[in-house]
Specification:
Length: about 210
């Protein structure tokens, strides 16, 4: 897995929506103090409860308003079914598009086979302001989108990986999502590592 990009809006030093493109391997943030380096790193933690709106002359509420709005984020992670399975104990729930329904199991299997024909996909995660979206964008252009609220449940194809990491179809089930969208992609979080250098007072070393 690797992050392809992160978008930040109305969070600490980020006011309007800004997108940071990331590449495989080592990415280095360079900038002046208070330019948003640490803020960008915090956004990569995928903490869906993060909400600390930008505060400046630009974001002052209009007369009569009492809020600065909500922080919003959008992350894109490149991954594949086998990798996601490894992170989640070889048991996967692949959400189907909101509103999509099947007439029989045969249609479910056709949909499943189409998804796994190209196991690599982008996982788009949008959260903030009380709304969360989880979007699987597959290599053949197929996208499945699930709109998720806290303690919600979504329809998903339940699959397991066999001993040679081949996805096996097990049927369509309701998947309970806890703590909003984070209940699904939390399998990735332990594998996210970021290094944040700490400032030292002038005249110190070590």
């Amino acid at each position: 897995m690797h992050f392809k990009s992160i978008e930040i809006e109305n969070y600490k030093s980020f006011w309007k929506n800004q997108r940071i493109q990331l590449e495989k391997g080592f990415n280095l943030f360079i900038g002046a103090n208070n330019s948003g380096k640490t803020t960008a790193l915090e956004a990569l933690d995928l903490n869906v409860s993060t909400n600390e709106p930008h505060r400046s002359i630009n974001s002052l509420p209009e007369f009569g308003q009492t809020t600065l709005g909500f922080s919003k984020f959008k992350a894109i992670i490149a991954t594949d079914i086998q990798e996601l399975g490894k992170f989640s104990g070889n048991q996967l729930y692949l959400p189907i598009s909101t509103g999509l329904r099947f007439n029989n199991e045969a249609e479910q299997r056709v949909y499943f086979e189409r998804l796994i024909a190209n196991p690599q996909f982008d996982l788009l995660i949008e959260y903030g302001g009380g709304n969360s979206n989880l979007i699987f964008r597959w290599g053949d252009g197929v996208s499945t989108k699930a709109t998720v609220q806290s303690n919600d449940a979504i329809y998903a194809i339940y699959t397991t990986l066999n001993e040679v990491n081949v996805p096996i179809f097990n049927g369509l089930e309701m998947y309970a999502v806890s703590q909003s969208i984070g209940g699904y992609f939390q399998a990735y979080i332990p594998y996210i590592y970021r290094f944040s250098a700490q400032r030292r007072p002038a005249g110190t070393s070590g």
